[in-house]
Amino acid sequence: xxxxxxxxxxxxxxxxxxRASGYxxxxxxTVISVEEVDRQARAMGEVxxxxxxxxxxxxxxxxxxxxxxxxYGKMEILHDFNLQVGKGQxxxxxxxxxxxxxxxxxxxxxxTNIFSGRILVGDGEAKKDVTTLTSSxxxxxxxxxxxxxxxxxxxxxxxxxxxxxxxxxxxTPAQAREAAEKIFAKYDRLAARRSHAAGVLSGxxxxxxxxxxALVMGPEVLLVDEPSIGLEPRFIDMVFEILDDLQKTEGKTxxxxxxxxxxxxxxADIGYVLVSGELxxxxxxxxxxxxxxxxxxxxxx
Length: 301
What we know:
Blueprint: H1 12-19, H2 34-43, H3 50-56, E1 61-72, E2 75-86, E3 90-94, H4 101-109, E4 113-121, E5 128-129, H5 135-142, E6 144-147, H6 159-166, H7 173-186, H8 188-191, H9 203-215, E7 221-225, H10 233-248, E8 253-257, H11 261-267, E9 270-275, E10 278-284, H12 285-290, H13 292-298
Parallel strand pairs: 3-8, 3-9, 6-7, 7-8
Antiparallel strand pairs: 1-2, 1-4, 4-5, 9-10
Helix pairs in contact: 6-7, 6-9, 9-10
């Protein structure tokens, strides 16, 4: 029996294989192993000096990481890592699997062991060292909120109750309810579903709820872990529009890990490429998008 290719026609199997995507765009010709991505990413690493990191933050960092060595247990993942992002700026972290991207968010929020270095948050004289604060202290005292990956809502609770949970560190339940009402006033889509169980929401609505719950405490810094993961394209656009509004209208500082490197870099003011727990490349989002090395390894072409 023929395989459908003898007459020059493409078999369904070959067509499916051809349509398979690489990192996130591009066809099968661009697919390479994780190990090869890591090898090539290491090869393209540059010496990123402190001046370049400061320049991208316009010399006025609101979140600053200095020579951070951090990891889990006794395992060091980040090696003398530096980061700067200014007030109201956004930064997207990309890189191969295991590069340490999420570990940066975890370290800022207090989920890792810090071996050395420090993390600073704030402006001018109000800048504070938050390195050793607990996650709750970082949220309440330094205005740092962590927006987890998908499936972090409480499905059996209503939308309203999920928002109240975002204010668990407030002095009284009444304060949490007042903050939730401000969220409903901002997002009609959630207000229309306030009494619905969170478990029946669409993927995009759940992500909106996750973001909104993080806003209840009025944070200035949003740590966003994989905002597009598991979402249909129309909901991905919605989520990035929400984040753009939070940055541009409300002045939130956003540090993001995003699997869809193209979408993340299109959104962000600053882009970092991580390799093996170190900063391999740094530039504006547009600069990294235009770099053929980044395109080959992370943009599918």
